[in-house]
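Could you join me in thinking about how sequence relates to backbone shape in a protein? Would you write everything just below, so we can both look at the same thing?
***
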Amino acid sequence: MDIPPLHPDTIEAVRQAVNIVDLVAEHVVLRKRGQEYVGCCPFHEEKTPSFTVSPLKGFYYCFGCGAGGNAIQFLMELQKRSFAEVVLDLAQRHQIPVRTLDSEQKQALQARLSLQEQLYEILAIATRFYEHALRQPVGQDAQDYLQRQRQLREETIQQFRLGYAPPGWQVLYTYLVEQKGYPPALVEQAGLILPRSNGDGYYDRFRDRLMIPIMDAQGRVVGFGGRTLRNQEPKYLNSPETLIFKKGQLLFGLDKARQAIAQRDQAIVVEGYFDVMVLHQAGFPQTVASLGTALSQAQIKLLLRYTESKQIILNFDADQAGQRAADRAIGEAADLAYRGDLRLRILTLPAGKDAADFFTGDEATLAAQQAAYQGLLDQAPLWLDWQIQTLVQQYDLEQGDQFQQASQALSELLAKLPNATLRSHYIHHCAELLGRHDSRLTLRIEEALRQQVRGHRWQGRSQKWQRPADYNLRQAAEEQLLRLYLHCGEYRPLIRQTLQARDIEFSFSHHRWLWRQILAIEEEHCAGRPAPDDPYNTEWPLHSPTEIGTPLTDLDLVSHLFDRLNEAEDASLLTPLLHLDETTASSLDRPKLVIQAAAAALERIAIEKRCRHLLQSWQETVALILSESPATEDLRRYLVLTNSDTEIDDISSVVPEGLQLLEQLRRDYYRDRKYLQQLDQQRCPSLGVIRDYS
């Protein structure tokens, strides 16, 4: 296959997207050993595993035959395919847009790479210049600030390569341009000097400031943060965006934290440069900072390379400013946390303290401070739990209007959870908080909260989005659940839990009528015991009779329902569910399998309908935008529905609200598509079971 040269951005996007452990595990049986995975090498015959895969390094190696490389190299060697073929295949698998290079693009790329190397070189020289200036008499105030006010040890100062930019308008300019001979335009592109407003020469961007080098994950200096020592504004002056310095794709301290993040299986994200340095010095080297920006997808992906448990802890103040900072910093991590792809936790410090203030630098108290901070790390709640706790604390639940406001706010929050099981768990948790652990009140609040959450979610009940095949599959799945509930009493708690956890309702009117009758019959026989709508209550009498009456699992629902059939409009459709023939009786042989498959099928139908609704909404929004804005190349590229990280801020002549709506539609669509894959794993190979028994 003749494949044109691929653009480096496409190759890099593929490398970022591929998880080498998951890819190799498709071809090799792997088992975890420490930080790595081991298995038998696929490139030569062996009985004792000598083949290792390192998720931290993104690398595989065989100690037997010497084969090694990254994920792309693995498929090239295993499948005997070219580099371009493997990259194209992986790009399609991960829905990454493919870009190629023509001859002009090749030349432009070579020029860009050459420019990047020159910028790295200039910034490295500037870093050494600032380090040297810090050790001179002119840098004494900066040294005092670091050692006395910030209480940084000499080894920490050297580790982070801190320096000082001397006062004067052309100190660095003179060194780099006049002594080292670098072109002024190149030094300007590195973000170190600025042209004078009258066009007559240049002046230094950083003057009389403590200089903090910002490095990429490979340890190359790509920019600086300059902290004033004289109460000047701004307090921190950062490098501008350049070819190699993009704040949304960098994390301060990551080059030094990578190994610790992998070893401790967690990353701590703080607000400031000194928070990172103090925590590293105090024994928490898994700490990074997000350079004052909200966490972007690119930054999250950087961190998730090194933590197997996908655990990121945000460390902010406990006061209102700290809470606002946490909300702001979460950024694009929210979608990943809602989907469960990221274990995002919030560590709150005593009000008025940041991470740098927590450690005094006093060696006598350091051990106690380390233990206290570690305790806060261990107790840090998940982001969603933190949100719920913070939200509830804002209201006086004794006041009726505030109670309603709290309930409304919680339902809006929970409606964002795409996973029905997780959503059901948190609905119950929030009901307990609002009900203040009154079991009867909690049950009523839980049902009301569940209805509110449904009201905030698009449930896909409109027949407009239903396919003909959905009707038969839904009918068969609902019948299976009802039949099992009627004839297999011991599985009633499991069915109830499944319906609640997945937020499933019966859609056919005669099925809804039958379910209401079942609930009424069980309520009549509950005799003051925990309500059957509460699947979490361990007091449900599952097996043995009590002095109060027959356990609900032993209740003969069929006999009671026959007495009520004359009230049903569609009695003829319900009678087959009350009787078992040879075919339907066979479905009782594997009840757990059928419950899982039927529930997954019902949930999948609803999600598929939602996806069709989202696609239609996308098309309508695209048509509206194109009718109001010129169809530029940038706009047309963005309007293609792909699972990409295209920025929307730099597309001009388009109403921002329209682009924001598209962004939300795209996230919702691909979030649901991913959840459909999870449902398929639960559903297959059980769909045949449902159809065979229908």
